[in-house]
Amino acid sequence: MDILYFAWVRERIGVPREWVETSATTVAALVEELRGREDRYAAAFADLSALRVALDQELSDFDASLNGVREVAFFPPMTGG
Amino acid sequence: MRVSVQGERFELGHEAEAFAQANTSAGAIVTFTGIVRQADQGGLVAMEIEHYPGMTHKALTEIAQTALERWSLRDALVIHRYGRLAPGELIMMVATAARHRKDAFEAAEYLMDYLKSRAPFWKKEVLADGAENWVASRAEDEDALNRW
Questions:
Q1: What's the first-to-final CA gap in chain A, in angstroms?
Q2: What CDD domains does the record point to (chain A) (predicted)?
Q3: Mind telling me how many Å the CA of B96 is from chain A's nearest CA?
């Protein structure tokens, strides 16, 4: 699945997007999987309360199912306006 | 209704005038404009605005559509820029047109409250000494959604 990162999450991980093969069934499980990969993921996902997630470009939450999802995006709380 | 996510500058006077002229039956037009603030200290040299291209237009359209229905607006306009902006440049504007001013004001506030916390934009300050800071979201911005 496609994973996108924005703002400081992108900076910590070092890439704006990547393709990840995963069998994770929820966002939380995907995060756990990523955290275990390398330190830069552990650093980016250290505090989930500082993060938001969008599934196929709709805001969602970390308990949500990944069933049928093609694109997951992680980012800090938005600061538009 | 028009939603524009753009890198290019826009002219406030031109946009406000065109919106008013397109809505002469409205009676009330409210506009709000966001501008890159010149910092009191620290020497801000630029504001870098990042967004989520696939999601931004859709999120803004949903927010504007909700405002249109909730306040029976005649029209709504949202323009939001991304990229590197200098102090004094316009970041964004919203405009609402309604029969009476109360609806136009309220809908504009609603648009701004939702846009700040629910539209996928992130701002980074670039300072004269080279430091870069991501602007943190404020709890008050999140709380502001509760009044709607």
A1: 31
A2: Ubl_MoaD
A3: 16
